[in-house]
Amino acid sequence: MNAIIEKINQALADAERRAGEAADAAAVEQLRIDYLGRNGLFPALSREMGQVPPEERRETGCAFNAGRGKIQELIENAAARLKAAGSGSGDAIDLTLPGRRWKAGHKHPITMLADECVAVFRRMGFIVAEGPEIEDIYHNFDALNTPADHPSRDPQDTFYFADGRILRTQTSPVQIRVMESHQPPVRIVAPGRVFRRDTPDATHGMNFHQIEGLYVDRGVSMADLKSVLQTFATEMYGPKVKIRLRPHFFPFTEPSVEYDFSCIMCGGKGCPVCKHSGWIEIAGAGMVDPAVFANVGYDPEKWTGFAFGMGIERLAMLRYRIPDLRLLYENDVRFLEQF
Fold first, then answer.
1. Model confidence pLDDT, tens digit, residues 193-231
2. Are both 196 and 268 inside the same structural domain?
3. CATH number, domain at 235?
4. What are phi and psi of 61, to 5 degrees?
5. How many CB atoms lie within 10 A of CB 249?
């Protein structure tokens, strides 16, 4: 019997004793390191195999492989024994340790602001309505009095599916669906995500969020619209915020206006954010066009109403002083945890 086989037999006897005496996972791990680790016995014996005479190599190699396998078996059996006994395996519960507190998450800033907008309009008597994000041409364009040659219908501006449906470009189709299924009076807000083919930059994106409102009843006027928008601005940005309405054109409202908030950064005095005008453009509004009422079966001689819409991301940028819209969608925890 050569010296390598003698070392293997001695190691097996010692390893069997140590495996039986191992009281914790650390002892089992040390056993593995001493015999099978990089600097352990068996890697060292492997390097000595080249010195064994040729006629003894077969016997020595078989003893080496059998010994290494036996050591591995002893280690696995010792680990299983400790695990079954619940000692040193890491699975035992130490009741003396302090509890672990999981960090509570929170809503995304867009969701937070959308919820706050809805809460403001709820206090004014509006209810929430929702609609599909994949729309048909009729509800997204035709019913809203948008002509066939309108630029917004171009594939360069709108995402079309092969079957002719589209990703909605606005939340206004919700208004059509509600009016088709409900008789006046109607007072709703429709928050949701919309999609447009646009080049992403600091103030634009290909998908963003809007909240639109619709109020239909007898005798509704522009004065009612301005009152609602002023109340919303005050609730969101404080009592010093003012609004102004500017003439504009939208296919589904007549007359149409764009509305601005006085700049909350400079208090209307003029700064780089408002381009020194003292005003920040928010979105569009107006009295519902009689043609839209006719499309949904409302009598325009009997009912009047207004509609408005605004981008939630723009409201968030003003509320939280965010300089770049893309920050809201990069999922950077360092940014999001500030909210």
1. 999 887 777 667 788 899 999 999 999 999 999 999 999
2. yes
3. 3.30.930.10
4. -65, -40
5. 12
